[in-house]
Amino acid sequence: MNWISDYVRPRIRSLIAKQDVPENLWEKCPSCGQMIFHRELEANLRVCTACGHHMRISAQRRLELLFDEGEFQTIELPETPVDPLRFRDRERYTDRLKKARSKTGKQDAIVVAHGTIGGSKAVVACFDFAFMGGSMGIAVGEGLVAAARLAVLQEAALIAVPASGGARMQEGILSLMQMPRSTIAVEQVKEAGLPYIVLLTDPTTGGVSASFAMLGDIHISEPGAVIGFAGQRVIEETIREQLPEGFQRAEYLRDHGMVDLVVPRGELNATLGRLLSLLTVPSLPRAAEIIPLAPPEAAADGTGPGEPVATEAESVTSGGELESAEREPQEPRGG
Ligand SMILES: [Zn+2]
Q: What does pTM read for this prediction?
């Protein structure tokens, strides 16, 4: 009886108890330590309800948030050589790949999808940090090339969403080759006259930040994201100096001109949609509609010589003519 009540019963109870209360019902905010109920956290797009810290999210969730109504089509990425260097550290690279694939359900650290954002066509190349730290190897480079080609083919904007620790060291020089490769890929989009926007998420570091991730026409970032090449500790040890508060954070980079906008997660779809509508011509008939709407007389009169009512810009210099001519077209657009 003793054996049953003292040993067997507690064991059984503990087994049942564990199933009743899964460990992940509450999640701790890594920034402020607040415990947040998992449903509340999901409803708030994995942004801390107490301090606003943006936690990392999967590529799938990211794409759902970015595209209109969460609707998009992913494309199949080309096959790439697996473990070309037969690399092995504590574990075989092929084993690491297998683990990452079963954990994330993804083939590699990048997902390419297309759909609409704010009604404009867009191709999104999104990293999954859960897949080997979002590291960039041959497959990721191939994904970026495929995304760029698709954008050119569809005459859509390209949006890259890096979340990466940098190059994948298990692929050595081949992973470094993805830096020029991805650079050329995004250049093709720019040459086609299409917008290329980068949405920097936590973290964007190493070879990724040193290639396509810093080449956008516009750089948007999520609040608090770490963006940089080398880590803070490495820099401090190298230059033997204390780095300023908030160094390598999105807000710091915005204040120093490296990032254009810091946008909270919930506003990303709306912000990207607005940017895309400004950067792309939706279709020719609509563009034709806009032109007659602009009062052509007003524009001609405003810039015309001998106009009795001169604006400030016009009265100061002769260059005022150019200034007002530049300003004029914006007014009908706004109205
Ligand atoms: Zn928090």
A: 0.77
